[in-house]
Design goal:
This protein folds into three domains: 251 residues, 2-enoyl-CoA Hydratase, Chain A, domain 1 (Alpha-Beta Complex); 195 residues, 2-enoyl-CoA Hydratase, Chain A, domain 1, CATH 3.90.226.10; 34 residues, no CATH class. The protein is 40% helix and 17% strand. Strands 10, 11, 12, 13, 14, 15, 16 and 17 form an eight-stranded mixed sheet that branches. A hairpin with a 7-residue loop joins strand 10 and strand 11. Helix 4 runs parallel beside helix 5, helix 12 packs parallel to helix 14 and helix 16 crosses helix 18.
């Protein structure tokens, strides 16, 4: 055999060896564990990436990494990739980085090298200014590695904080996420969970039972429904993994690659922008509820509203939409739930959303119909003062274009907090139905005219008379307009026209804030 033939044969053997390693890596923990994953109604780590990324665009990094542990016989059991697949590719043509934990390898548990792979891909995402998506499916820290695996979690948390506000960070919980593992998703911008197959908790049902004697299932303690409705930990509860992946793609479509860029504007053909149905949407009785989503969908581009945190703190509605092709964030009081009052949960929910939009140059539209803050011992004892201040702080520090439309009530301190002119809103519109006052006419009349009412022959009749007097003077938008606190009173049907023009006018807005390290938000 010639020397050239020997060289070719040697190369062929090396290539075959490489291909065998690639096949082994693709099998993860083996076919039986893949089958077990499927029986649970779950996709494998690689299948998730396949459905997430554009066809043929994914490039894997670190496929041949293995763990370094030698304790408890671990040196005899090694798998290529060590339980996490990392790399980059495109989602709808946009560069995106991803890590996907593989439950078939040691239950997706996090080892030293597993953590190193995740940190490496996060560093690359930051250096290249592109979003990162984490597909979480892990039993937690690899206990055979002790403190080394715990250190790996801390390394990831630190990277999450460094990346916060620099690149969008999205977390999809596709299986278990327990103990220290929960804090990485908690730092990221948005969390998605899958109903019945994913859960998050700091301590599991067994520990809960031991410490507090409570009997609770994993689903009840930390399932998708629990976190979507009770805790607000997850922003989206998805019916299955495919829906979760489609939500990830949709979410990315509204946000830019990084904090230095703006979201892509979609092509838009101007048409008739009047919305005459808005002139007849509000009930005649100001105490009657209506669904603020009807206002949102009438104003924004057709089928563009993408609600966030829909099942949590339903007295406020937040989400993304498009207006003449432009990505915007919406914060709207919801009169159909608790009359649209602000409370602790709704304030926190809205504040978090406002800060995300400000991080990534997404203009804010606020639709206001708020009778005030929710009274009661429960609210006061659970920090409504501090929690309400979070929303106030979030709006006040936001430098993106900010526009408010007052549809009906704007009472008390809640008027100030909901993106008023006084805290830096750029444009403030009001419908003729707007009522801007310290409080409702009924309560105000009772306080201002207390003596006259009590001295009257018919106190109820006198009360109603004074209520009407106060209402005529203050329960309208014109006092605020006279002072310049409202820039324009507009017919509801003209709202979309005004907003398109105003956001266009504000697209080059620049704010120079006082120099500081960072503010101290009331957490």
């Amino acid at each position: 055999m010639s020397q050239e033939a020997n060289i070719n044969l040697a190369m062929q053997n090396k290539i075959e060896n490489l291909q065998n390693k690639i096949k082994a890596a693709h099998l993860g923990g083996g076919q039986s564990r893949i089958d077990s994953q499927h029986k649970k109604g779950k996709l494998t780590a690689r299948e998730r990436i396949h459905f997430l990324m554009d066809e043929g665009s994914f490039e894997e990094i670190g496929m041949l990494v293995t763990h370094r542990s030698t304790d408890f016989g671990m040196e005899k059991e090694k798998y290529l990739g060590d339980g996490v697949i990392t790399g980059y590719g495109n989602i709808n043509g946009r560069l995106t980085y991803v890590f996907s934990q593989d439950f078939t390898v040691f239950g997706g548990s996090l080892s030293e090298t597993h953590a190193e792979k995740i940190c490496k891909i996060m560093e690359m995402a930051m250096k290249n200014g592109a979003p990162i998506i984490g597909l979480n499916d892990s039993g937690g820290a690899r206990i055979q590695e002790g403190v080394v695996s715990l250190g790996g979690y801390a390394d990831i948390f630190y990277k999450n904080v460094q990346a916060s506000g620099v690149i969008p960070q999205l977390s999809a919980i596709m299986g278990p996420c327990a103990g220290g593992a929960v804090y990485s998703p908690a730092i990221t911008d948005f969390i998605l969970m899958v109903e019945n197959t994913s859960y998050m908790f700091v301590t599991g049902p067994n520990v809960v039972k031991t410490v507090t004697h409570e009997e609770v299932s994993s689903e009840e303690l930390g399932g998708a429904s629990t976190h979507a409705t009770k805790s607000g930990v997850t922003h989206f509860a998805c019916a299955n993994e495919i829906e979760a992946i489609s939500y990830l793609k949709k979410l990315l479509s509204y946000v830019p690659q990084n904090c230095e860029e703006t979201p892509d504007n979609l092509p838009y053909e101007p048409g008739d922008e009047q919305r005459p149905n808005l002139d007849h949407l509000l009930p005649q009785n100001a105490s009657q509820p209506y669904d603020i989503r009807d206002v949102v969908t009438a104003i924004v581009d057709e089928e563009s509203f993408f609600e966030v945190h829909a099942a949590y703190a339903e007295n406020i509605v937040v989400g993304f939409a498009r207006l003449a092709g432009r990505s915007i964030g919406i914060v709207a009081n919801q009169p159909a739930y608790l009359a649209g009052v602000l409370d602790s949960n709704s304030s926190i929910k809205a504040a978090r959303f406002v800060r995300f939009c400000d991080c990534f140059n997404i203009p804010l539209l606020v639709l206001e119909d708020v009778p005030g803050f929710l009274p009661g011992t429960d609210q006061e004892w659970n920090g409504i003062i501090t929690n309400g201040a979070k929303l106030l702080y979030a709006f006040s520090e936001a430098t993106v274009p900010r526009i408010t439309v007052i549809t009906r009530k704007a009472y008390g301190g809640a008027y100030d907090v909901m993106n008023s002119k006084h805290i830096g809103a750029d444009m403030n519109y009001a419908w003729p139905t707007a009522e801007i006052a310290v409080m409702g006419a009924k309560g105000a009349a009772e306080i201002i005219f207390k003596r006259e009412i009590s001295a009257a022959e018919n106190p109820q009749e006198k009360w109603m008379e004074k209520e009407k007097l106060y209402s005529d003077i203050f329960a309208n938008p014109y006092r605020a307009a006279e002072r310049g606190f409202v820039d324009e009173v507009i017919a509801p049907s003209q709202t979309r026209i005004k907003l398109i023009k105003a956001f266009k006018m504000l697209e080059n807005k620049v704010v120079n804030n006082p120099r500081k390290k960072h503010g101290n938000i009331p957490l």
